[in-house]
Amino acid sequence: MREPLSLDDIRGIATWARAAGLGEIELEQPGIRLRLVFPATGGLHLVRSPIAGRFLDRHPARPDPFARPGDRIGTRDVIGLIQVERLYRPVIAGRAGVLARLLVETGSSIAADTPLAEITTETEGRHGTRS
Amino acid sequence: MIEIVQTPPLNSVQDLGRYGARHYGVGTSGAMDDVALSTGNLLLGNPAGAAGIEIQMFPFQVKFRSDVAMAITGADCRAELDGTLLPPWWSTNARAGQSLVLQAPATGARSYLTIAGGVDVPVVLGSRSTCLRIGYGGHRGRALEAGDRLVCGPDSQARQPQGGIGAEPPEAALAAAAADGAGDETVLRVVPAAEHDAFPAPSRCAFWQEAWTVSAQSNRMGFRLMGTPLHLDQPLEIRSSGIVPGIVQVPPSGQPIIQLRDANSAGGYPKIGVVIDADLWRLGQARPGAKLRFVSVTQQQAAEVQRETEAYLSQVAELARLCRREARR
Amino acid sequence: MGSSALLFQAPGALDLANQRRIWALARQVAGWPGIREAAPGMSNLLVIFEAQSCDPEALQARLLSIWSTVNDTPEAGRLVELPVIYGGELGDDLGLVADRAGMTPRETAQLHASTDYVVFAPGSSPGFGYLFGLDPRLFTPRKNEPVLRKQTGTIAIGGIQTSIGAAAGPSGWNAIGCLSEPLVPFDPHRDPPSVLYPGDRVRFRIEAIVA
């Protein structure tokens, strides 16, 4: 019979699994079943530009930016504009969360699909072990 | 269909005005900020002259009774659709049951609500504009009231791309004339009119060099201006003639009046100048207390500014059309 | 006049022959390409055109050259008789006009009603139009400050012209009487919409003179 897993062993497995980007790992040996589930904290959603154009962090006719780092953002919120000549297209968050930072300076010319902002998303997590 | 939930007086259905009915003695009416009305329509794929709602008194609230694309242009009234703040000069899709609220703007005077398909009220003498002064056209010949329901014209199925699209505001896109003066003045290009040279030099100087204040007695009929009185050396007998929006008359009091959309269709006071068509929208956004300054231009220069304005509107229309086409793919 | 209008002022006197030519000119010009309106005034014509398709200078030149050849064929108009109460509350400037003319209010009213007036041009509000034919003894300048008129149908004198008020509102004209029967000057759903048109003749019938 093998020795039961120590806490150090479990921590080691957890660190290794996390580094490998796993969300969940399950190990089974006679007499031992270990299941670790890692909460997805610190997930980042990249907001990408829908089209090429000039990125603006605020509407030129209003003084305040659409969103500042630290603001709570809804999935459908506008966080910037892409200007193409006389027209503005909205940059829509796409995920709910907190605006971490803008990746592009207002006024910059950008290509389509350019990452413009990072949104920190949060999901519910759960974990447990059994032996 | 949209339902007016709350409105003060003097908000009305307007298009770009009534032409071809002058022999009845009928004036133009139409939107005081024709560029804002046109831009809203063009964002939605309407003809520029489709009827919309001119809002000059706030707060204003409507409820959408059907799904329809809509646009808010003109003065930034911080429009909220079901509580979500819309950018200014913006078009988006509204769903049945949603409410739109417009607040008094901090700058500018008039906002425009346009809807896909246009506001469908009967055409009277060639136009859907309301003549508030006489009481015909638009919605039942009067200003809008709470409870009024307005139907969308055909082609109201058109939808904006997800998230909506906006236009660069004319304040940014169309350069005003330069003038020496304070930064907060509205500069207007004016072509000298028939009786301009009949005014003595001091009066002509005052007209061109002073800042004029829009008095509180100013509305869709005309703006009464305050400043140095302008006087003729001898009274002129003027034969009454037709009046177009933009004409600057000088009545015996010496205080100029700029005749606007709901002005009398004819009159006989001396005319010192005519504000060019392409700058009428700037007047439409000037509030009582605003300062105006006049800059002299030729008819050719006026036509050039008109071309620039038409180019801006064409660009908005074309880009909006491309956006909607791409979104359908 | 700005970027999309010009005012053609006919040389010469304000008279019926000249005005008939203005009407004929208006009819011709209305049919030219790019013209949105050709609205007659008192021996003048307001032309509103599409700035894109019309060159104002060419238009001006064309108007000037046509003017010399246009005919003064009489307009087919009707004779319309309108009963008037001169003086009183709604004609409170009758005394002023009479004093200036050196006549009594009664004489003034009788002189005003003794001429048939020709409707020369659409008025400042739709319905009645500007009337021509005012006796020079009754010429009275417009007021310095307009007065609020609360009723339509006011008979008034402004400078060398007389008119029937087609809308309530501020007016600088001198009110000498009022139509004795209410008339809706303009109704866009009526056929025809206006009561009077250029070319019609108006005869005022004295119902009463309240001096």
Give a description of the structure:
- The complex is a heterotrimer of chains A (131), B (329) and C (211).
- Chain A is built from one helix and ten strands, in the order αββββββββββ.
- Chain A has 131 residues and is mainly beta.
- Chain A folds into two domains: 31 residues, no CATH class; 79 residues, OB fold (Dihydrolipoamide Acetyltransferase, E2P) (Beta Barrel).
- In chain A, a hairpin with a 2-residue loop joins β6 and β7.
- Chain B has 329 residues and is of the alpha+beta class.
- Chain B has five helices and 21 strands.
- In chain B, α1 packs parallel to α5.
- Chain C folds into two domains: 63 residues, Gyrase A, domain 2 (2-Layer Sandwich), CATH 3.30.1360; 132 residues, Cyclophilin-like (Cyclophilin), CATH 2.40.100.10.
- In chain C, 21% of the residues lie in helices and 32% in strands.
- Chain C is elongated and about 55 Å long.
- The mean pLDDT of chain C is 91.
- Chains in contact: A-B, B-C.
- The interface between B and C is large, with 49 and 55 residues.
Key features of this structure:
heterotrimer, A: 131 residues, mainly beta, OB fold (Dihydrolipoamide Acetyltransferase, E2P), 2 domains, four-stranded antiparallel beta sheet, 1 helix, 40% strand, elongated, disordered C terminus, B: 329 residues, alpha+beta, Cyclophilin, seven-stranded mixed barrel, six-stranded antiparallel beta sheet, 18% helix
Present the secondary structure layout:
The complex is a heterotrimer of chains A (131), B (329) and C (211).
Chain A: H1 7-19, E1 24-29, E2 32-37, E3 43-48, E4 53-56, E5 72-73, E6 78-84, E7 87-92, E8 97-102, E9 109-110, E10 115-121
Antiparallel strand pairs in A: 1-2, 3-10, 4-6, 4-9, 5-8, 6-7, 8-10
Chain B: E1 2-6, E2 12-14, H1 34-44, E3 52-55, E4 60-64, E5 68-74, E6 80-81, E7 84-85, E8 90-94, E9 99-102, E10 111-115, E11 149-150, E12 165-167, H2 170-173, E13 186-192, H3 201-209, E14 212-218, E15 222-226, E16 241-242, E17 247-249, E18 257-259, E19 266-267, E20 271-275, H4 280-284, E21 291-296, H5 299-328
Parallel strand pairs in B: 13-21
Antiparallel strand pairs in B: 1-4, 1-11, 2-3, 3-10, 4-9, 5-8, 5-10, 6-7, 6-9, 8-12, 13-20, 14-15, 14-21, 15-18, 16-19, 17-18, 17-20
Helix pairs in contact in B: 1-5
Chain C: E1 5-9, H1 16-30, E2 35-41, E3 44-49, H2 56-67, E4 79-87, H3 94-101, H4 105-113, E5 116-121, E6 130-132, E7 147-149, E8 154-158, E9 161-164, E10 169-171, E11 174-179, E12 201-210
Parallel strand pairs in C: 4-12
Antiparallel strand pairs in C: 1-3, 2-3, 4-11, 5-6, 5-12, 6-9, 7-10, 8-9, 8-11
Helix pairs in contact in C: 3-4
